[in-house]
Amino acid sequence: MSESLRETILLIVQIASLIAVIVYVVKTAEMARETKKSAAATEKSIEEMVEDRNVEFAPYIVVYFDAQTDSPIFDLVIKNTGKTIANNVKVVFEPPLQTSLKNYDLERLALIHQPIPAIPPGFELRTSIDRLETRLNSETLPKIYKVTVTYTGGLNAIVRKVEYLLDLNVYYGILETHVSSLTDLTHAVQDIARQLDHLSDRTEQLSDKFGHFAEKMDQIPTHLDQLSLHAEKVSQQIESLEDISKAIEGLDGTMKSKNTKIW
User: Fold this and answer.
1) pLDDT of residue 76
2) 43, 131, 139, 184: least CB-packed within 10 angstroms?
3) Residue 248 and residue 245: Cα distance in Å, rounded?
4) What average pLDDT does the segment 243-253 reach?
5) What pLDDT score was predicted for residue 122?
6) What helix, strand, coil percent values describe the chain, rounded to 5?
7) Which residue has the higher pLDDT, 165 or 228?
8) Residues 48-84: tens digit of each pLDDT
9) Are the C-beta atoms of 86 and 53 separated by less than 8 Å?
10) DSSP label of 252
11) What dihedral angle (degrees, nearest 10) is formed by the CA atoms of 68, 72, 78, 79?
């Protein structure tokens, strides 16, 4: 084999080896990229799972106005609708919460001026704020509030922040739909008590009347005895009248006989 042929064959082998190395490097790079993408996807999936679990087991504080259908007063409600305890709950109103109710100082309402240490799951804090009709017709009292709520709790020890816009104008034009409640039950029970008192009074009145009637019934034999005595006296008087009548008739006969006597 000539020297030139060997060099040609060696060159071809080197080129083939280089191509193989290049292909190997490219494939390895592609595998590395796919592995990196897979690792990133796995990491993202794990983060999403952790976040979903965090959201699932996190506390969630909601703040809203509640206008009961059987009350003219609307309430402020702070409630934990999450699954774990909410700690260090702070509620800030902008503008500051106001009321038209007399002798009711909202400055002393601790739940909006001081942090709430803890709110268990499903627990709510409720307080009356103002008369809904008064607030809707007022030109000075605010009807829209921006509420900022911060708290901690759940799987992560981060500070959670939620903002709400509470607008009392949504109650304009609403036709009240009465729903039976404990208030209605209370009124019904109170009405039963009033009816029982009235029935008791009527029973006492009837008892008094029956007492008087019984007294009258007890007096009937006495009246009957008296009536019998009167009857006897009347009978005796009638007999006396009959004797008098007979005497008068006798006297009349005697007088007639004298008047008609012929001498």
Assistant:
1) 94
2) 139
3) 5
4) 61
5) 93
6) 55, 20, 25
7) 165
8) 776 777 777 889 999 999 987 667 889 999 999 999 9
9) no
10) H
11) -10
Q: How far apart are CA 239 and CA 242, in angstroms?
A: 5
What are the residue boundaries of the structural domains of the chain, listed by start?
Answer: 1-30, 61-179, 181-258
Q: Which two structure tokens, joined as six digits, stand for 217?
A: 């019934």
Q: What is the pLDDT of residue 262?
A: 35
Q: What's the CATH number of domain 61-179, 3.30.43, 3.30.70, 2.60.40, 1.10.10?
A: 2.60.40
- The amino acid at 133: E
For residue 198, pLDDT beyond 80: no
Long-range contacts of 60-64 (CB under 8 A, 24+ apart): 60/86, 60/162, 61/86, 61/89, 61/119, 61/149, 61/151, 61/162, 62/162, 62/164, 63/91, 63/147, 63/149, 63/164, 63/166, 64/164, 64/166
Whose tokens are 């590395």? That residue is 32
pLDDT > 70 in the chain, percent: 72
Furthest C-alpha separation in the chain = 227
Three-state secondary structure call for residue 38: helix
Q: Which of 182, 201, 178, 179 lies closest to 190, judged by CA? A: 182
Structure-block tokens of residue 28: 């390895």
